[in-house]
Write the structure tokens for this entry.
Amino acid sequence: TPERRRNLRPSGRGGCQEEIGCVGAPVMLAELRERGIRPDGCIVGEPTSMRVIVAHKGINAYHCCVRGHAAHSSLTPKGSNAIEYAARLICYIRDLADHFKQNGPFDELFDVPFTTAQTGTISGGIALNTIPALCEFVFEYRNLPGVDAEGIFQRIQQYAAQELVPKMREEHPGAGIEFKKIAAAPALDASEQDAITQLVRALTKDTDKRKVAYGTEAGQFQLAGVPSIVCGPGNIEQAHKPNEFVSLEQIAQCESFLQKLIRSNTVDA
């Protein structure tokens, strides 16, 4: 399924439970470099209904741990409320998302034509009458190709360090905010002049230019110097939900495509 990345949720135990991540491609790329293998191109077989995808957004996921100080709720000046400061940071992330939605940059070929951001899960507190000492949440942003992904995180980190942490430490010197990157995959922006793009277009007879909001490993291969494209069986609408499936018709189209691809490489050799 697209991204094959971590499903992330706060554990409630000072850490973040992590399931499978988008981590296989970097291992493969490292192995290829070690063996001196330089692929001419890469086709990532994510579900595109066997249509050509020339670009997708980058994905960047972070775990945030806000540490305050516990106290009885009747003595609020003696504590530092981790949930409330986490809420301020989450609202700032939403403000960034609204800024991108309103001001761009925009690329109308994408189904969602601007960079997005959102908070996915949150956990904090132990009781109504106790000021929470800990709040954890995970957030992500999906950047258009050409948008500085690290720059977005720096804005979030700077807001936390300059606007929130000083106020927290006025309440308790041990308070603070910590971030951990838990998943990242760069955006893809394939060139129409790349041989792999032209080959896949010729084999599929698909000349339309399409870009998608979900992420794949194609950006990792492109970043490593391997021209890449996305084309595979199935549809994103059936992914990441109960009973996800790929139709037999799509499998047959993919088999036909692969046979043509093998024959094209045989002729070229």
